[in-house]
Backbone:
């Protein structure tokens, strides 16, 4: 128990760097330098703001032109039907395309729109206007509703929703992030925009694993931002300008711009405004501390164990386990397994000796974590 408490406190109090950085795409002819978004099939769409094209990159990293001829394409979002919405920054327009790239509708939304994010619970599209520092909603019927305008927003670009559908807005100028509701903007944190470069700005933000993640264009850094308390900000990756892959402590970035979290892969993808056409991938994003709650009602036995563990939910709850996932103490995903038996059974023979966290996902979609020891 003492060992367990020590490890838990260590996990809470430190930023353990088990993450690795790789280059997912390197193609100057398909230069994704701005916003990105995944569709439900795992294709990644990315804007070339310095040019006129949005690219579609499949899971193997092959890029093709999705649409071109746009005046500085910027924000991207995808609705529940798979239609792709693209901001055309210099034309003051948001376009709606089919998944095949056919234009369905164009909406004049005002001068210099930028960020774009789909509502988690509807097909409303939230977008920013940098011309008047506002956040707005484009509804499916074409209606535009202003959510908030003016100070403390200052050229807002990045948009992200958390699991509770709170909307966060990042200021391109100054690096402040606010939680925005209708007629209200509440300060959350300031992401440092110093550290070198001629133009360090907060480019985009993304939400994943209980935290916000922001790219600093100009200082070549990526920051992690907690959402539970103000100014819970720490450097996650990056230092000097560069393109080095490898352990996150050693990896470098070149003007990171767009950022998107892929929950299926527990990975983040970052575009770079460098002209090289690089999209970088960071694997094994740390779990939020509140994901490691031990107040869950399932039993692991035997624990400790050498070869197998059995996982059981009390029968009075009327739930079945549908999936198990194993994480190491750094929060890195080790393996997942679909379950079709009760009690659930998992082989741990190939795991090195040590402590792990087990996530159990149940038939009603709920989940919880428990720890176990591999002897």
Residues:
């Amino acid at each position: 128990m003492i060992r367990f408490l020590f490890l838990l406190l260590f996990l809470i109090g430190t930023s353990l760097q088990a993450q690795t950085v790789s280059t997912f795409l390197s193609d100057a002819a398909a230069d994704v330098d701005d916003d990105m978004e995944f569709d439900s099939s795992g294709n990644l769409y990315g804007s070339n703001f310095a040019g006129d094209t949005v690219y579609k990159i499949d899971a193997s990293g092959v890029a093709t032109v999705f649409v071109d001829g746009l005046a500085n394409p910027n924000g991207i979002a995808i609705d529940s039907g798979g239609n792709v919405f693209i901001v055309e920054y210099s034309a003051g327009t948001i376009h709606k395309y089919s998944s095949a790239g056919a234009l369905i509708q164009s909406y004049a939304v005002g001068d210099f729109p930028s960020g774009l994010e789909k509502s988690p619970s509807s097909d409303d599209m939230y977008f920013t206007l940098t011309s008047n520092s506002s956040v707005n909603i484009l509804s499916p019927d074409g209606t535009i509703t202003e959510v908030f305008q003016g100070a403390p927003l200052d050229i807002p670009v990045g948009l992200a929703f958390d699991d509770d559908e709170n909307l966060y807005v990042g200021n391109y100028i100054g690096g402040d992030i606010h939680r925005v509701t209708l007629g209200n903007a509440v300060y959350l944190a300031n992401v440092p925009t110093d550290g070198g470069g001629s133009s360090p700005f907060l480019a985009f933000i993304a939400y994943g694993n209980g935290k916000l993640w922001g790219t600093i264009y100009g200082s070549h850094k990526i920051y992690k931002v907690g959402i539970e308390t103000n100014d819970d900000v720490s450097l996650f990756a990056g230092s000097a300008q560069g393109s080095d892959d490898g352990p996150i402590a050693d990896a470098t970035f070149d003007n990171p711009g767009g950022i998107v979290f892929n929950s299926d892969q527990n990975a983040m993808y970052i575009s770079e405004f460098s002209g090289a056409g690089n999209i970088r991938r960071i694997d094994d994003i740390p779990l939020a501390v509140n994901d490691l709650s031990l107040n869950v009602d399932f039993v692991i036995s035997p624990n400790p164990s050498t070869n197998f563990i059995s996982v059981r939910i009390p029968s009075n709850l009327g739930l079945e386990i549908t999936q198990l996932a194993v994480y190491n103490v750094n929060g890195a995903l080790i393996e997942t397994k679909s379950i079709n038996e009760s009690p659930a059974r998992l082989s741990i023979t190939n795991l090195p000796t040590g402590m792990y966290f087990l996530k159990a996902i149940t038939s009603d979609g709920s989940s919880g974590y428990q720890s176990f020891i591999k002897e």
Q: What stands out?
A: The helical segments are 2-13. The first helix runs from residue 2 to 13. Residues 1-17, 289-296 have pLDDT under 50 and may be disordered.
